Amino acid sequence: MASTLKVDTITTPDGTGNITFSRPIVGNLATNKNIIINGDFNIWQRGTSFAPMVQYEVGADRWRYQKASGTAVHTISRDTDVPTVAESGHLSNYSMKIDCTTADASIATSDQYRMLYVVEGYDFAPLAQKALTLSFWHKHTKTGVYCVSFTNNGSDRCYITEYTQSVTDTWEKATLNFDASPSGGTWDYTTSKGITIDFSIAMGTDYHATADTWNSSNDFATSNQVNACDSTSNNFMLAQVQLEAGSVATDFEVKNYADELARCKRYYERINSAGLANFYYGQGQANTTTAAKMVFNWEVEKRVAPTMSMSAASDFMLTEADEQAQDMTAFEFSVPSVSSVRFLITSSGASLTAGHATIMRDDGNGNSWVDAAAEL
After folding, report:
1. Second label for 147, Cα 20 to 30 Å away, from 121, 133, 215, 340?
2. How many CA atoms lie within 13 A of 83 on its CB side?
3. Is residue 352 within 8 Å of residue 320, measured between CB atoms?
4. Does one domain contain both 184 and 83?
5. Total domain count for the chain?
């Protein structure tokens, strides 16, 4: 039911009385209390299934997989298995599923398997040196104790706490309290890493530390952490992840999809993420009979100047006003910035006219894409 926020002491311009007005607040629609971007796992710009995951690869937007040594292999995918509305009070479309496809029955001291989320310094600053609450739903095959840790920018402070999967392959909610972060240590409150949240899947003893206190180290689990990589039957699933100030977990915050997508694009943007055939990238200008250039502006300003990558040059076409398509043989990026990048294009023929307008598009097969990555 919608609640009502009332303000009743606003005086009219002529001073003759007060006005009362109300504004409906629908459910728990965005108040920006949840610092996690894509905690509901709706945004997957890179794809919806990744096999096998490699170290530090991103699956769902803003979520990274970390594997250091060890023999286990995981697939990460978007899954429609989610907590019910009756359980969580919120209708989620998706969860994130980490499926163990190659087991590691004996975790070596230096092995680590974890999913992590990095909070940018600007987002973490309002929560710094305050008590925090992390809440989420988990569905793990392996029962027992799991760990979540916070680590700072300088990797010289960490805080570890535990939660338990009580019943195998069942959605359960965890609510974890973290003491206020210390002033000591190396922290960033601007565009770099503010704090990293690590969800341990299995962890070697080199990364064990004491629970429920700020340690002067870079560790991720306690000695109670289970090995959730010991069987290919094991799944590790997360849904509805929320980090907020205070010591009480409030209802999961519903965020506007368009706003959430834009927030994700601050860190990563894939042009033609839908794989559209004949996708139109933009207009440029030929500077020789075989070369052209164009400037592409990002939909959302990036955190920092991004790292650029692209599909094969042969996935693109170049045309002039006569609509005669020419294959592209080379593609370079020049001066990427937080707001734009310049494309330097070489065509296969020698039929461009210097000074004429050109158009760059997909070659008709829908395989072309350009990536701008400004991840933490």
Report:
1. 121
2. 23
3. yes
4. yes
5. 2
Rounded Cα–Cα distance for residues 102 and 233 (Å): 10
For residue 255, being part of any structural domain is answered with: yes
Is-contact 69 111, C-beta < 8 A? Answer: yes
Q: In this structure, how many other beta carbons lie within 10 angstroms of the beta carbon of residue 71?
A: 14
Does residue 235 lie within any of the structural domains?
yes
Give the Å distances, CA to CA, from 312 to 307, 317, 340, 343, 363: 17, 11, 21, 14, 11
Q: What is the pLDDT of residues 169-193, one digit of tens each?
A: 999 999 999 999 999 999 999 999 9
pLDDT for 316-370, tens place per residue? 999 887 777 888 899 999 999 999 999 999 988 778 889 999 999 999 999 999 9
Residue 72 has what DSSP assignment? -
Q: What is the DSSP letter of 85?
A: H
Residue 281: pLDDT band (50, 70, 90) is very high
> Beta strand 280-286 with 316-319: parallel, antiparallel or unpaired?
unpaired
